[in-house]
Design a protein that fits this description.
The structure is a single chain. The protein has helices spanning 2-39, 45-66, 80-106, 109-116, 119-131, 137-156, 162-187, 194-216, 218-221, 233-259, 262-284, 290-318. By secondary structure, it is mainly α. Helix 2 packs across helix 3, helix 3 packs across helix 8 and helix 6 packs antiparallel against helix 12. The longest helix has 38 residues, at 2-39. It starts with a helix and ends in a 13-residue tail after the last helix.
Length: 331
């Protein structure tokens, strides 16, 4: 009995460490990307996303080859069926991240996080259609609250841009779908370990993004003076740092999904949204209206209640107990 308690405690500490790392790297990635677009007037979000995925593929490959036993990595090729699922996940992942970076060109991270806090809606919609998970009356009420709050933030946003708004909505919807697909691959019958999934996902995503960037952005990049101006080296340094941070963010994202669930990831995402909004306002000092503040508060509270209710249902179903940081592997 004593060893059982120690095991649970270790599992919770591991999940807590992964969660805190995810908070940190997520906030850094959002603000670094916005800094690139804002400070250098960099107009190539697909290229930025491509750099992120190349870096993810590179570092995950090194980690798999150098310490597979310590990281519990199986280091074996995927079957055809699993690889096809990974490629679908990679396509959803690539479009989601690309849309998020497109949004950051036009709107500030504080606004993108308000819209992104509605991720639980899209996650549950995807889970309903893929896994048949029903919705309760409380869930529907919280969804209405999120829509209302997001609408207030929409009308009150001082720096509103329609393309930026449409991009972040698309990114948020695909992020919810990605969470469900990733959870299935990590915990299903033909489960894939975290690093292997990140390696194959980033590899396929890089191919999709390279095609998109070469087709849409490269003709303008070839004659853009930003690459030839004095001091442009700083842009590449920040882009490299952003790409490295993106690797750890994506790794922690998959680890949080593995140690908890896609719904729990949505709960943590609401906390992360608050932190990123505060940090973004401190860095960029963008104007925010009282209506946006009220809308943000309503959206985050509704999303929090919604995810909390879903988490209680999940815990009751799988007998995980009250702690939302408990790993399903340790039960």
């Amino acid at each position: 009995m004593g060893s059982r308690r120690v095991k649970l405690k270790k599992g919770e500490l591991t999940t807590l460490a992964v969660t805190l790392a995810w908070f940190f790297f997520n906030g850094c990635t959002s603000n670094l990307n916005k800094y690139i677009f804002y400070q250098y007037n960099f107009q190539y979000p697909l290229f930025v996303t491509l750099c992120h995925q190349v870096c993810c593929c590179f570092f995950s490959a090194i980690a798999i080859e150098t310490c597979p036993l310590q990281l519990n990595v199986k280091a074996k090729p995927l079957t055809g069926t699993v690889l096809a699922r990974v490629r679908v996940l990679a396509l959803v992942f690539a479009i989601s991240i690309a849309c998020g970076n497109v949004a950051l060109r036009y709107v500030f991270p504080s606004f993108t996080q308000v819209v992104a806090s509605t991720t639980p809606i899209w996650t549950s919609m995807a889970a309903y259609h893929i896994q048949g998970e029903p919705q309760s009356a409380q869930s529907l009420l919280c969804i209405a609250g999120m829509c209302f709050g997001c609408g207030l933030a929409f009308w009150g946003e001082v720096n509103f841009h329609m393309l930026g708004f449409a991009s972040i909505v698309c990114a948020t919807a695909l992020r919810g779908l990605k969470s469900v697909l990733g959870s299935i691959l990590l915990t299903g019958e033909d489960s894939v370990d975290t690093l292997t999934l990140l390696y194959y996902t980033s590899q396929s995503a890089a191919v999709f993004l390279a095609i998109g960037s070469a087709t849409i952005e490269f003709p303008q990049m070839a004659r853009d003076p930003v690459f030839f101006e004095e001091g442009f080296e700083g842009l590449w340094i920040i882009l490299l740092i952003s790409s490295c941070v993106a690797f750890f963010m994506n790794l922690c994202n998959l680890l949080v999904t593995f140690y908890t669930s896609a719904v729990t990831l949505s709960v943590l995402g609401n906390v992360k949204s608050v932190l990123v909004i505060i940090v973004s306002l401190g860095i960029f000092r963008n104007t925010i209206s009282p209506l946006t503040v009220v809308g943000t508060f309503i959206t985050l509270c509704s999303a929090g209640f919604y995810s909390q209710g879903k988490l209680r249902q999940s815990n009751a179903k799988f007998h995980l107990g009250p702690s939302f940081l408990r790993s399903s592997r340790d039960v």
